Amino acid sequence: MTQASDLDSLIRKLERRDVLSAAEREALISAAGSRESYPAGADLVREGDRTDRSILVTHGFTTRYRVLADGQRQITAIHLPGDFVDLHSFLLRKMDHSVGALSNVRVVTFPHANLRLITERHPHLTRMLWLTTLLDGAIHREWIVAMGRRSALEQMAHLICELFTRLNLVGLAEFDREVNLPITQTELGDTLGLSAVHVNRTLQQLRAEQLIVWQGQSVRVLDWGRLTSVAKFDPTYLHLEREPR
């Protein structure tokens, strides 16, 4: 059975942007369905699926991706605790991409019938859930800009800045402490559109400039100010302002 604590990251993420009432919190808890777990490498949802539920990450990292006919994979999003991986499936129905687990993952499902009740009874909460899909779109746009116009060094630095900022938002990272990022160099290449050699060279450059320490899955930012400068990181696209929605 889903507990209120399972939704802590989601509620923290939403309340960074606006105030949720007690009734809205209760509506989210009531709408939640089962708790499920997936091992690293497993698919939560596959391209072509027609699903009757949306999935909220509560622990671990997931990724949206497409696999091309020649077997190449492009990662189009990285989702963290507090993120819905497929809230858009409530309306789009058929999945046009897959969602995979980067690490061992725990999730809470939200049956679409329950989400429909929220849209009928809680207009403000509906807007807040809509906001989460708009934030996904904003991050997509920033990634497109990065892939098209930033250097490999800037891209890598920008991704690190973004992930630290999003993890900090839900209380899972401090900017001057080690953070667990379960992302391999191959997965970084699939995210940034870079070869494995280019990824390795770029990480070495960030280390050589004493901006980060990355060992295994442990990442520490040594100089946040310089890293954001190298990345040209402006968090405006993450829309962190708390204001009426």
Short overview:
With 245 residues, the protein is α+β, with helices and mostly antiparallel strands. The chain contains nine helices and ten strands.
**Sequence of strands across the biggest β-sheet:** 2-6-4-5
CATH superfamily of the largest domain: Jelly Rolls
Would you tell me which CATH topology of the largest domain applies? Jelly Rolls
CATH second-level architecture of the largest domain = Sandwich
Strand content: 15-25%
- What class would the helix/strand composition place it in? alpha+beta
> How many distinct beta strands?
10
When the domains are counted, the total is 2
- Per CATH, the class of the largest domain reads Mainly Beta
Radius of gyration over C-alpha positions, nearest whole angstrom? 18 Å
Low-confidence stretches: none
Distance between the termini: 31 Å
- Give the proportion of residues in helices: 40-55%
Order of helices and strands: HHEEEEEHEEHHHEHHEEH
**Biggest beta-sheet profile:** 4 strands, antiparallel
Shape annotation: globular
Mean pLDDT across every amino acid position? 95
